[in-house]
Amino acid sequence: MLRGFTLTLARDMRLALRRKGDAANVLLFFVIVASLFPLGTGAEPGPLRAIGAGVVWVCALLASLLSLPRLFAADLADGTLEQMLVSAQPLGALVAGKIAAHWLTTGLPLALVAPLLGLQYGLPTDALAVLLASVLLGSPVLSLLGAAGAALTLGVRGAGVLAGILVLPLCVPALVFGAGAVAATLSALDPAPHLSLLGAFLAVSFVLGLWASCAALRVALD
Amino acid sequence: MLEAKALACERGGRRLFGGISIALEPGALVRVRGPNGSGKTSLLRILAGLTRPAEGEVRWRGAPIAELAEAYGAEMLFLGHAPGVKAELTAAENLAFALRLAGIAAGEREVREALARWGVGAQAGLPARVLSEGQRRRVALARLALASRVPLWLLDEPFAALDEDGVGLLRERLATHLAAGGMAVLTSHQEIALAARRVHTVALGA
Description:
The structure holds 2 protein chains of 2 kinds.
Chain A: H1 2-18, H2 20-41, H3 45-66, H4 70-78, H5 80-85, H6 91-120, H7 125-152, H8 159-170, H9 172-186, H10 192-221
Helix pairs in contact in A: 1-6, 2-3, 2-6, 3-6, 3-7, 3-8, 3-9, 6-7, 6-10, 7-8, 7-9, 7-10, 9-10
Chain B: E1 2-11, E2 14-24, E3 28-33, H1 40-48, E4 55-60, E5 63-64, H2 65-68, H3 70-73, E6 76-79, H4 91-101, H5 108-117, H6 133-141, E7 152-156, H7 164-179, E8 183-187, E9 198-203
Parallel strand pairs in B: 3-8, 3-9, 6-7, 7-8
Antiparallel strand pairs in B: 1-2, 1-4, 4-5
């Protein structure tokens, strides 16, 4: 089980290192879009602080969506996906490894940059820390549900847009609890309940996302 | 060992074949023949458990392959049309990954030896991007050199894109595998003489 997980994880990390541009594009997209809002809405600290966490979260959602189409498509094109389905390793472990690699190359960098972007919105230090925690907890959700969306739209024309339409509504709870945690901190409330709910949603999406991805991959290759 | 009963396949609402039964015992080779579009690849994918048959079922050691899942994967090696070779990885990395995926333990030295045996030893450290179609095929086939312990080989058009020397290597490898009690199912539209104790032919689209 673990062998299958580390096998695809190590391979996808190595592939990401050989194509650094892909991960860099996602991060740049995130930084640029999140920086456009303060420029467009004016520099009044009040409204900016109010929308800050929500905007950063939506931008993180859109940025991670950008990286979804190639999650399985490249493996489908060169036949590796076929080999994964007839492998001696459990498919769930192999897919989990791919999702983990996706999170490490897109979700984790997004989470680490999020507090810097939060600075542009005048968020205080404690809110920045909560923002970091919420994106750290929430970005695996995006990778898990995103993988299911990518697997479901595999081989379909316009897969990127379709995956977005499928995945974004499912990510609403992550957005609500994630941005909610920061909003709670700003109104001097405890962010812990929001973060707990976000963690619970992560657990649910781990089970559902992984299961749906595997099932969808089997159907896609039938 | 491998038993397929009354297999039928439908693609896009059209029936490709029906009533195909195959029984494979150690040392036997099944050759699937037929014109383009007759369902050779579909039959092989059904045997590999990738595609579900419209009718019938495939059993391995008496158990349905759908229930065996990765336990079947450990005893079966499937090579499809696409070689499963990643352009960004080197030939050696590609082979090492393919072997681990197939559950075959192999060290770095064995990987290099296998590549050398298939005539791509000099390209071991090169990214697969710069290899030719035939060389990529050889990288994919090199896993056969280390797959003696995998009893069942399912090879889809294994002779495609190979030169004369490559065809010879593959024939030789198949012959040793079958002589050691292995089994193989392969599709091909060329006539290639194969040494095996028993050769069954499945003709599709006749």
